[in-house]
Amino acid sequence: MASNIYLVRQRISRLGQRMSSFQLNLNPLKEPLGFIKVLEWIASIFAFATCGGFKGKTEILVSCVKEPENKTITAAFGYPFRLNEASFQTPQDVTVCGIDWKKYVLIGDYSSSAQFYVTFAVFVFLYCIAALLLYVGYTNLYRDSRKLTMTDFVITIVVTFLWLVSTSAWAKALTDIKSATGSNIVQELKPCNIQGVVCQFVSVTSMGSLNVSVIFGFLNMILWGGNAWFVYKETSFHSPSNTSTSQGGIPPPTGI
């Protein structure tokens, strides 16, 4: 019994020493476990940057019988894509065709999908930093601890699934945003249906960066799904510990 207590104390002491001593070891970055984590870190940056930093506008050319000169009205929108708050603006804030265009807005609120996608990508970015710090600074602690490797594996599976969910939701929202800011707005705006008012869709800001954000979302899902195997190899399920615990007691005699 005393021998078992002594062994437990020794293990706790060694664990405390490993946690308190940071030793930089870049070898994990040369292995798939660390290298893919770096790729995941970079891909998460592109994911939230290409979506969260977007700003654009859509333009409509308006003409009417009373004013022979054509006027361009614009509606600016961007992340988090609350289109129902994006009102139309006229040149020099004047009324066009006797209509106060500021009262009219784009249709739709896609902030939930966009914010979920960006917020999740930011959390993944932070987790990758923490994981890389653990890999290169506390390599022995990570590989000797069953709880850490198992926690890392479970998080990897969950993150893979959430990348699929968040990216799919954001891709659907992006399709609706393109429709709500494209040529369809001419049919949706009530003033454009008034007799004597002619509206013509002019242009909308290119959403190439938003398309890239969707691509990086699915790329992140692939990276995390592939990395799950390498994280699994670090767990006790793949490499069970064969260490045996001493039972304590008096050693058998060597002779008669």
Automatic annotation (TrEMBL):
The keyword Zinc does not apply. It is a multi-pass membrane protein. InterPro entries: Marvel, Synaptophysin/porin. Residues 28-236 form the MARVEL domain. Keywords: Glycoprotein, Membrane, Transmembrane, Transmembrane helix. GO terms for cellular component: secretory granule; synaptic vesicle membrane. The keyword Disulfide bond does not apply. It comes from the Eukaryota. The chain crosses the membrane at residues 116-138, 150-171, 210-232. It is found in: Membrane. Belongs to the synaptophysin/synaptobrevin family. This is Synaptophysin like 1.
